[in-house]
Design a protein that fits this description.
5-stranded antiparallel sheet; binds heme C; 425 residues; Jelly Rolls; 3 domains
Length: 425
């Protein structure tokens, strides 16, 4: 009898401390997964209910502990809107799966999150949409398409925030907004957009933020709104991933203006190289570049770019005192999840800091993302079968008087990079 009672007590305590869906797991999945794993979301299945979750418990535990979900590429440093499970959250999910994915008290399951349909920041100052719906076939390769948005910008404006709404989140993988002051996008877009893998196909390609599944609207720092030129064309670049059924998409975007002129300016330090020639089979091909910043700056954001066979992306700052700060490290690059990263806190870089990029490409058969089997020689270029190497660091000079010196040094770097003969970046 006593033995029975003890056994029952042990079971009771183990049960009491056990992990359940309603008490522990639902909240973790709502917070970290639901933005994509919901009806109409970009992920292939929903994870909003116990039934949907329990039947995939093993897989969920596996992707969580491998950290392949939620998708988040940088391992360092800390950025805003980081999508990473904590070690404790991973332990909870893993234990729940191992114990047979119990539901617990279903009445106590928290309410699933609500995803607002309208613009999150309220009525925008300028709203525009793709001029017509675009047909995405049921299958075939991913498409990268640029659309000139019908919009009238009669005078220069300062942009404080940008939001985007995919027309069809089953096929829109990500979207980027640019302004074109050259008129060339308008010439190429004959009504249903034009193909534009990698870059939007004009220079300078001034970015105005982007949308990736689960992202919040882009907001410029209060004192650094972005200049939108009068008469510029707004160009939307959309990455489509066929869903298995024919689909249509008409993505929309919203701009929010401010009359407050910037008191400081962000400048782009473009590290990169067009000298790329990767032999077939080479598993460790490096592309490097660097720039010595002549004035003190705060780095506020960073945007790495390469195509499919880039493996490891490292950007760091070698400070004048000999220490090194990681600006970004992505050990397993995935073209599908590219985005700009904003630092959780600005990174102060004293005058004389050398910023360095080091990208490593794997053009061997062993690289599962290599589009060529057997591998082929890969050269620099804008199309899927080419490679690129770019690391853009957005910096703000600590002293506004220093802006011209920095701009002049960046101009010098650009001239050296192009050998004075045309812009090839
Ligand atoms: C930013 C969007 C996004 C978030 C956030 C996200 N997922 Fe996913 N998930 C996807 C997409 C898209 C796929 C389809 C495969 C792919 O493209 O990688 C996927 C696939 C999966 C798969 C199937 C993997 C396989 O090998 O079949 C599982 C399991 C999964 N996600 C679990 C999760 C869990 C658990 C979370 C939260 C801890 C999560 N995901 C967060 C977008 C997301």
């Amino acid at each position: 009898m006593v033995v029975h009672l003890l056994g029952w007590l042990a079971a009771f305590w183990a049960g009491g401390a056990s992990v359940t869906y309603s008490h522990d797991v639902a909240a973790i999945l709502y917070r970290n997964c639901a933005s994509c794993h919901r009806p109409g979301g970009v992920a292939p299945f929903s994870l909003l209910t116990y039934q949907e979750t329990a039947k995939r418990a093993g897989l969920i535990a596996a992707v969580s502990s491998k950290r392949s979900m939620p998708p988040w590429l940088p391992v360092a440093p800390h950025f805003q809107e980081e999508r990473r499970l904590s070690d404790a959250e991973i332990a909870t999910v893993t234990r729940w799966a191992a114990e047979g994915a119990p539901e617990g008290n279903s009445a106590a399951t928290p309410a699933p999150p609500h995803f607002p349909e309208g613009w999150q920041l309220g009525p925008p100052d300028l709203e525009a949409q793709m001029p017509a719906a675009y047909d995405v076939p049921a299958d075939g390769p991913d498409q990268y398409r640029c659309f000139v948005l019908p919009s009238q910008i009669p005078r220069d404006r300062w942009v404080r925030a940008v939001d985007m709404r995919p027309g069809n989140s089953r096929v829109v993988h990500h979207a980027l907004l640019f302004q074109d002051i050259t008129g060339s996008a308008r010439q190429r877009d004959t009504g249903s957009g034009y193909e534009c893998f990698g870059t939007p196909g004009f220079l300078p390609a001034r970015g105005l933020g982007g949308w990736t599944p689960g992202s919040l609207p882009f907001r410029a720092p209060d004192d650094i709104p972005i200049l939108l030129h009068a008469a510029a064309d707004l160009v939307l670049q959309v990455h489509y991933h066929p869903s298995g059924k024919p689909e249509t998409d008409r993505t929309a975007m919203a701009l929010y203006f401010t009359d407050r002129k910037p008191t400081r300016h962000a400048l782009d330090i473009p590290l990169g190289s067009s000298r790329i020639d990767i032999p077939a089979g080479d598993a460790i091909y490096k592309v490097t570049d660097h720039f010595t910043i002549p004035v003190a700056v705060d780095a506020i954001g960073i945007n790495p770019h390469a195509h499919y066979i880039c493996k490891d992306m490292l950007g760091y700052a070698a400070l004048p005192n000999g220490t090194r700060r990681i600006l970004i490290h992505i050990p397993d690059w995935n073209f599908s999840w590219q985005q700009e990263y904003l630092y959780a806190a600005p990174v102060r870089l004293p005058a004389g800091t050398d910023v360095v990029m080091e990208f490593t490409y794997d053009n061997s058969d062993a690289n599962p993302r290599n589009p060529n089997h057997p591998p082929k020689r890969v050269l620099w270029g804008p199309s899927t079968t080419d490679e690129m190497a770019g690391l853009h660091i957005a910096v703000v000079p600590v002293h506004t008087d220093d802006e011209d010196d920095l701009a002049a040094a960046l101009w010098g770097k650009m001239i050296r990079a192009t050998g004075g003969g045309g812009l090839r970046k």
